């Protein structure tokens, strides 16, 4: 019987423990992007593809630097529409979700309208908004808000309704009002759901802003980066078109990373999804 622990100890000593490297997941995406860019550059140079058909990454970067002054103004316009729509969607989504929890008839009355707005393509709504709303900026902001609003509303409503019944009964036994239950119990419990919807809405707000700008640009109303893309496409300035696309992509990546960081900072001390696992 005494030999079994010794064998187990010998096996543990002989078997090396391989721990996953923490640096590999961080550097691997960057190396992958650099590899694809180098392959793109090599393909254009070896195949001698014309720059108006497919510009090399080096040409796109040079064009971005040369035209950054003109692109930055359009970029700023797109950013204002995106963050404005995201802020309105966050405030409106949380407020309406709270109203849904407090009033079931109100939820039955307004939720179908929210679903209709969500499933209707924004491309079909944007021309109507440009007709009914005099200000182009307000019309674009409304279109982007429609796209970003529903994920926050649905996620927050789900979180508010996912509270443990035992905790709700405890609040009732202590004489808490519905507003006190909402503020002290439901809203903290719904925070992870809200932050999850916020990360989805951040990308959708950018997509809604760009799509609405495309519609406005096709109607002859100059606005953000989408107008620069349409203009570059008409003039076969493909490198400038790619430069505008890079700005849009980088904006979406930064929005997602920022919202992910905010979610982690708010949940890291108490929610299971953000707690660090000790290994």
* Binned strand content: under 5%
Oligomer: single chain
Helix segment count?
A: 11
Model regions low in confidence, pLDDT < 50 over at least 5 residues: 1-21
Question: CA-to-CA gap between the ends?
Answer: 31 Å
Spell out the blueprint of helices and strands.
Layout lengths: L2 H12 L9 H24 L9 H10 L1 H35 L1 H16 L2 H11 L3 H25 L4 H9 L4 H41 L6 H10 L3 H30 L12
Helix pairs in contact: 3-11, 4-5, 4-7, 4-9, 4-10, 5-7, 6-7, 6-9, 7-9, 9-10, 9-11, 10-11
Describe the structure.
The structure is a single chain. With 279 residues, the chain is mainly α. It has helices at residues 3-14, 24-47, 57-66, 68-102, 104-119, 122-132, 136-160, 165-173, 178-218, 225-234, 238-267. Helix 5 packs across helix 7 (136-160) and helix 6 (122-132) crosses helix 7 (136-160). The longest helix is centred in the C-terminal third of the chain and has 41 residues, at 178-218. Mean pLDDT is 85; it is low at 1-21.
What can be said about this structure in brief?
This protein has helices at residues 3-14, 24-47, 57-66, 68-102, 104-119, 122-132, 136-160, 165-173, 178-218, 225-234, 238-267.
Note the main attributes of this structure.
mainly alpha; 279 residues; disordered N terminus
